[in-house]
Specification:
This protein is α+β, with helices and mostly antiparallel strands and 103 residues long. The chain is 23% helix and 22% strand. α1 links the parallel β1 and β2 (48-54). 29% of the residues are buried.
Length: 103
């Protein structure tokens, strides 16, 4: 397997000591996972991997999405439309400034 060019992390609010806590899972961040996988496939972006994560500790900005290796952190990603904007920017080799919470 070839190493992916990008890795998209979606906060799932998982905690080592039990049930999910925080905001991301309450705002249904897990619903983004199948959408992302389908959208990446439709766009031919086969060099991108998607994973759900444990809590990323930025609950006040949730749902959180992180794109590596760029280390771009996006907040309040609660719709397919917002995710599309991030993917559009990623395809262009840029960050989506609208939702960026880190520089």
């Amino acid at each position: 397997m070839e190493k992916p060019k990008h890795h998209i992390l979606v906060c799932g609010s998982f905690r080592a000591q039990g049930a999910p806590q925080g905001i991301c899972h309450k705002k249904e961040s897990a619903q983004l996972l199948p959408y992302l996988e389908n959208e990446l496939s439709d766009r031919g972006m086969t060099d991108v991997v998607v994973s759900a994560t444990a809590c990323l500790n930025v609950c006040e900005k949730g749902p959180i999405v992180v794109v590596h290796p760029e280390n771009d952190w996006y907040g309040e990603i609660d719709s397919e439309e917002k995710m599309d904007e991030i993917l559009d920017a990623l395809e262009e080799g840029q960050a989506c400034e609208t939702y960026l919470i880190s520089e």
